[in-house]
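Lab notebook, bench 4. Still working through the backlog of constructs that have no structural model yet. Next entry is a single chain of 403 residues. Request: give me the C-alpha cells for it.
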Amino acid sequence: MSIFVGLDWGGSSHAVCIVDATGRSLEHFVVAHDRDGLDRLVARLRRHGPPEETPIAIERPSGLLVDVLVAAGFLVTPVHPNIVKACRPRYRAVAAKSDPGDAFILADILRTDGHRLTALKPQSDAIKALRALVRGRDDLVATRLVLANQLRALLESFWPGAAVLFADIASPIALAFLQRYPTPEAAHRLGEKRMAAFLAQNQYCGRRHAGDLLARLRAAPAGMAAEAEADAKGELVRALAGTLESLVAQIARLSSRIEHAVAQLPEGRIVMSFPRAGKICAAQITAELGDVRARFQSEDHLAAEAGVAPVTYQSGKSRGVGWRWACNKRLRAAVTCFADNSRHASPWAANIYRQARLRGCRHPHAVRILARAWLRILWRAWQDNLPYDANKHLAAKAFIANG
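Model written out:
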C-alpha cells in the first residue's frame, strides 16, 4: 500500500501525519527532537514500509532531522513554506496554523503533486564539510560588519578622528591603534615619531605617511565628552577592538582552510576555472551547488534557484517583471559577486554588463543579468564535469574577434 508522510518541523517536537493513496489519514503522532524521539520516528515509519518506498514531505531542505531521515534511506522531499501557506484554504476555512494540520497538508501535497517535486539526494561528506565552513565564515563576516559599525558609531560619539584614521576600521592596524590609544587623552602626546614607530611595530603596509595620518586625526571634529564619559567609552572601544581582532583572526584562519578544501574538490576546481572566480567566492558557489549533478534539471532551474532570473506576472493584458524572493540567497550573493568580478577580466562579460547599463539598468540589476549569462555556461561545465575553457566559449570568442 502506498503511503505518504508529512512532517511539520518544530524546535522541540515534530508533528507527523501518514496518509494513504486516497488521502485518508492513517496515523497522527508527535515525536520529541532528541535522540530517543528521532529513533522512535525512524522505527515507527519503518512499520509502514521500507524506507526507499516511503516519501516524506518537510518544509526545510536541511538540518539534523533531514540528515537523520536521509541517512535512514527515506525519500525526503522539501516543500516550500509558501506552497503550504497557499494550500491551507483548501483544507479549512480558518487561516490559523496548527502543526498537525500542516503535517497533513504536507502529506497530501506529496500525494497529489509529488511528481512535481524532487526528493533530496545526499551530498558527499566533503561538500557537507565545505558548506559548513563557508556558511560559518559568512556568518562571522556578517558579525564582523555589525561589530565594526558599532565601533565606528561609538568613536563618532566622542572621538571622530579615530573612526576615519584608517580606511577600514576592522583592519589589524586600526584595531591595534584603538587598543593602544582608545581615547583622545591617550593619544594626546602622540607625535610623528611615535606614530611612525607604532606603524613600523605593527607592520603597517599602507601608503600614508605618519604625518599625514596625524593630520587626518587632528583635522576631525573634537569630541565633547567629559573625562569620565570618555574613559568609560574608551573601555568599550578596547572591548570591541579586542573582540574584532580575535574575530578577524578566526575569519582569516577559516578562509585559509576553505581555500585548501575547495581546491581539493573537482566541483571546486571547475568553478575556480572561471574568470576572477577566486577561491572564497568559488567555495561559496560550490558549497551551494553541491556534487549531485541531477539536482538542477536545466540552466533555467539553476538560475531560478540562484535568484538571478526574474519572476514574470501576467494576467490578461497586464504584465510585469519582478524581483525573485524565493531563492537560495547565499547562492545569489556568491554568483553575483563572481559576475561583478568577472567583468574586470572578461571582455565578453564587461560588454554584457555595459549593454545592460546602457539600457538603463542599475548596477545590481546589470550584475544579475551578467550572472544569468554566466550560469548558462557554469551549468554546462558542471554537468559535463569540465573546467571553463575560453577557447570553447563561442560567444566570448566572437565578441573578441569582432571587437
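Notes after review: The radius of gyration is 27 Å. The beta strands are 3-8, 13-20, 25-32, 55-58, 75-78, 311-315, 318-322. Flag for follow-up if needed.
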